[in-house]
Design a protein that fits this description.
This protein is an alpha/beta fold. Helices cover about 45% and strands about 15% of the residues.
């Protein structure tokens, strides 16, 4: 891996949004519960947040046993209500510093998220972090693979020189499907032990370690410090 890092230093970082940059989980849970009460998709006794955070996104969707259109409608409703309350969402502590430091090193930044581009742009403007070269969202709010591919093309940088940072198992898969190195952060939705089972290239537990990792991967002269 050291040889790979030296040969292909990081020139761009693509971030997930929810659970990675923005702490949307508390608000999203409240919104999801209210919508569920209205639509009655999941019985109250079956709602177990800790259990949901302990299984992959794919397994969670399978466990719901709902038609795809209902899942998409449910997610779009959450996204719409979240957008109206985005000013109540906090930036994860330390993330601003990570973003500003990466910009100082001329590393390009992008976001690919199943949240809407409109919501993301509103959030980054409110929080004074309009630092991103590209922001993209998939047409259907489940799979990010194609949206990541579009951003890679727009960046004009080899996938070998780009990493993807996210907090869910589907982030790992979407990154690897696009030949990107995947960095999993443990302050978001999925728990550390679950993320590790999906073989991310790196796992970090705080924003200081995330910055150290990216900067070390961005230099041919520094060996990565986080594994």
């Amino acid at each position: 891996m050291d040889e790979l890092n030296q040969e292909y230093p990081v020139k761009a970082v693509i971030f997930d949004f929810d659970g990675t940059i923005a702490d949307t989980l508390p608000l999203s849970i409240n919104i999801a519960i209210k919508i569920n009460d209205e639509l009655k998709l999941i019985r109250k006794e079956e709602i177990d947040l800790e259990a949901f955070r302990s299984i992959s996104t794919e397994d969670f969707i399978k466990r719901l046993k709902l038609p795809r259109y209902k899942i998409i409608y449910y997610l779009l409703r959450i996204r719409s209500i979240l957008g109206k309350n985005i000013d109540k969402v906090e930036v994860f502590s330390g993330i601003k510093d990570v973003l500003f430091q990466l910009k100082k090193y001329n590393i390009k930044l992008a976001i690919v998220s199943t949240n809407s581009v409109k919501n993301i742009k509103k959030f980054i403007k409110i929080n004074n972090i309009e630092l991103f070269d590209f922001i993209a969202s998939p047409l259907f709010p489940i799979n990010k693979r194609r949206a990541i591919g579009r951003v890679i093309n727009n960046l004009g940088i080899s996938p070998k020189n780009i990493i993807y940072v996210g907090d869910e198992t589907r982030d790992i898969k979407a990154a690897h499907d696009n030949n990107l190195r995947a960095v999993s952060v443990t302050w978001g939705f999925h728990f550390r032990n679950l993320l590790i089972r999906y073989n991310p290239d790196y796992v970090v537990d705080n924003t200081n370690d995330l910055l150290k990792l990216i900067l070390s991967l961005g230099s041919k002269d520094i060996t990565p410090v986080i594994r």
